[in-house]
Amino acid sequence: DQQVKQNSPSLSVQEGRISILNCDYTNSMFDYFLWYKKYPAEGPTFLISISSIKDKNEDGRFTVFLNKSAKHLSLHIVPSQPGDSAVYFCAASATGTASKLTFGTGTRLQVTL
Amino acid sequence: DVKVTQSSRYLVKRTGEKVFLECVQDMDHENMFWYRQDPGLGLRLIYFSYDVKMKEKGDIPEGYSVSREKKERFSLILESASTNQTSMYLCAITDRTSYEQYFGPGTRLTVT
Asked: Residue B62's pLDDT band (boundaries 50, 70, 90)?
């Protein structure tokens, strides 16, 4: 039972344009959401997060939007750069679960020149 | 900077061997996690520990065990390795007040 879903396995975007990565979840107990970026042969690195009390969080070129009623979040990268090419995982957690994260299956982003 | 180290980057083992993967942190964080990453399946939690000698099963604990004798060290053990345990294994840490997990570089394990 996949509680966190990333339905697009891959995405290709031109340099300078916006990248939008999507994530859906089914567990209504999730109240904290994170995005991680992963390069091949490296561990994931934390990118940005959002609490369920907010609907938007911004950090430089990265913005995460949360739509609780639709159980949907998205990561926007503007402008996209070639160094953004990586696999992106969304993750979710619920209060009282010892910081345990449930991850999505990942979206491979390729930023082309 | 948070430092999470894993004992090997690449490992090749034979079916039936006992395999130890070690994770060491330098941050005095309470929580430590072991995941495996497989194409199309994302990261799946195997075991986690929120204190010394404490452990909890994750989503896919079958075929694995763990040990946490010291706060900074969390070991994943494959009692009898099988080919379906060929995967990328990732260790992560976090403290009790945070959700952001910090990951080690991973161990690519191949079981032949």
From this structure: very high
| Chain B residues within an 8 Å CB radius of A44 | 43, 90, 103
CB contact under 8 A, A41 and B45: no
CB atoms B103 and A89 under 8 Å: no
At A4-61, the pLDDT tens digits run: 999 999 999 999 999 999 999 999 999 999 999 999 989 999 999 999 999 999 999 9
Task: Closest CB to A42: pick one of B50, B94, B105.
Answer: B105
Confidence tier at A65 by pLDDT (50, 70, 90) = very high
Do B42 and A103 make contact, defined as CB atoms within 8 angstroms?
yes
Long-range contacts of A2-5 (CB under 8 A, 24+ apart): A2/A26, A2/A104, A2/A105, A3/A27, A3/A30, A3/A92, A3/A102, A4/A30, A4/A90, A4/A91, A4/A92, A4/A102, A4/A103, A4/A104, A4/B42, A5/A104, A5/A105
